[in-house]
Amino acid sequence: MKNVTDSFVSLGHWPSAGSFGFNTDIFATNPINLSVVVGVLIFFGKGVLSDLLDNRKQRILNTIRNSEELRGGAIQQLEKARTRLRKVETEADQFRVNGYSEIEREKLNLINSTYKTLEQLENYKNETIQFEQQRAINQVRQRVFQQALQGALGTLNSCLNNELHLRTISANIGLLEAMKEITE
Known about the structure:
The chain is mostly helical. It has helices spanning 2-9, 26-159, 162-183.
């Protein structure tokens, strides 16, 4: 400490006018140089530093403002998205309910049309059965008639002789001629 005070005291004592030299004592010159540099920086750099800090402060405030605006916009978009989601979920529920209703309606329509088709098929089957029964009955009648006719012809042929046969034919021809004259 004595050296520091000695250096200040020696400031009052200037070397001779003809000589110029450097003070190489670091402890003596550093505080003086630092105080001069700090003083010059404070005096001249105060405005620059203040401007830099003000600019930095403005940029930070602008960034905060922009962030708040973006946050507000994001919140609005989130609310809009939530509203759309609710709307879409409601529509999906309606489609689901309508889809189930439509499926049930189509199922009932299919069941009804199947019953109608089965009923028509049953009617066609019954008509076909009746037609086939009628045809079978007619065939049986024809066979019975043919067999009866053959039996009658067989009986007549065995009972009739040629003379009786010729008289019957002549009588029938006479009847036909009489009918022909009447119709003319």
